[in-house]
Design a protein that fits this description.
This protein is mainly alpha-helical. The longest helix is centred in the middle third of the chain and has 29 residues.
Length: 187
């Protein structure tokens, strides 16, 4: 009989290693996908995923049981990912200031269904062409289901800025989709 998630959380907070490991194994795919959708550089995904899992473990005592555990964990992942992105942006800025080239890798996906994989790859390619702010706003709202006020609080920006990023991001994505569809018909 598998212990409930709530009992595993309590056991992990109490220092039981097997309970903590069980929670992390359960969360790993979700955390990795969230990081992968938020980060452009494929080589950073594993490091940020590990950092996020450590932050979740360290933050377990602060989880109050209000709302879904996965939603709480998602917020921790978002904070860690954004912090890592800010660090990476600062590093790239410093490298660019020193006139050094910065190489950005493309995203890769684990395949599920061939059609799903192609659609996801296409969507990821289009999302990569959006600004970081627009892409994050769309992901937080449409993938993670965060409300505009929640996003404003999480990103520490005004509500109208979030609304603008969502509106502009959707418009830009629609434009990219129509251009992409037009190019496919030409081939």
């Amino acid at each position: 009989m598998m212990p409930t998630q709530e009992s595993r959380i309590r056991a992990a907070v109490d220092g039981q290693r097997d309970a903590a490991e069980s929670l992390m194994v359960e969360l790993l795919p979700r955390v990795r996908n969230l990081v992968r959708y938020s980060v452009h550089v494929d080589s950073e995904v594993d490091d940020i995923t590990q950092e996020a899992l450590v932050a979740i473990l360290r933050g377990l005592p602060t989880y109050r049981g209000q709302g879904a555990f996965a939603s709480w964990a998602d917020r921790v992942v978002v904070r860690v990912t954004f912090a890592a992105s800010r660090r990476a942006r600062a590093e790239r800025y410093q490298l660019n200031r020193d006139d050094e080239a910065v190489e950005l890798n493309t995203l890769s996906l684990d395949t599920e269904q061939p059609e799903d994989c192609l659609l996801r790859r296409r969507l990821e390619r289009l999302l990569e062409r959006l600004s970081d702010e627009q892409r994050r706003a769309l992901l937080l709202h449409h993938v993670m289901g965060m409300s505009v006020p929640e996003m404003a609080e999480e990103l520490e920006v005004p509500l109208e800025t979030i609304r603008s990023r969502l509106r502009l991001g959707r418009a830009h994505l629609r434009e990219l989709l129509s251009r992409d569809a037009g190019q496919e018909t030409l081939m």
